[in-house]
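Hey L., structure's done. Input below.
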Amino acid sequence: MGVDWVPARVRDGVDENVLEELLREQARIFTTAYVGEDLLTVRPDASLDEDEARKRMIRASERLQEVLEVFWDWNPPWRVYVITANWRFPPEWRDAAWSGLSPAAAREALTRWRHWYEGCLSGRYEHYLRRLRTWELARHVAGLQKELVGKAVASLDTDNRKTRRPEFRKLRHQVFELPDPPRIPLPGSVPADGEDLPSPGQDEHWEMLVAHMKRLKEIYHPFSRAGGYGMMWPEWVKEEEPERADPWLEEFFQWLQPLVEEGYALYLW
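Output:
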């Protein structure tokens, strides 16, 4: 599902508080109906049935279009994943980015995002980013192990040449013997400038995760080949630190800056 921020102008006479309330309502319904379990730090609104949430999402979007002039042909709108799927940003910021933004909120967000990104590049948040990287990597490792175990369980009900081979059965047994992935805590409060400190156990968490990831990877490829599943270990799920510079994010900042200066809102679509 592609989700974009589309530039929009607030129509004349619209109360800013009304706009903010509509944006909050759309975001609440959107995260329940479409994002759901992909949220990182909060859970969807349990009081909303998913089908009902989708219907209410349509109504909320229509109400927003009554107070916003949306520029659909803007070239280009921007995918919200530049923030929501960006490991550099604190999880709570990424969750909050599943939302439209009023002109004031867009201005504040750009300032905060850019300041944080520049701090990341300069090494200002080294300890927090280490904890964040550990937590983020642990999520993906757990997902890969869940996929692997699911294939192994399903193969118990499949009788063919591949599943009868002793090599495959040995590998399947090794899959079932894997310990659960390490439970890595959230990275903690977002540090202010000059307040980035190490947390107890952060190095141990990293070492424990890397050891588990290596063991999982040793089984992942052979099992996939033996079973003919074609599962590929993602290249970016690795021990090495990813590049902190992000050209796509920098392009997004360049796209958003003039919109903020001219008082545009961002409509979520």
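The longest strand covers residues 4-10. The CA atoms of residues 137 and 238 lie 8 Å apart.

-- N.
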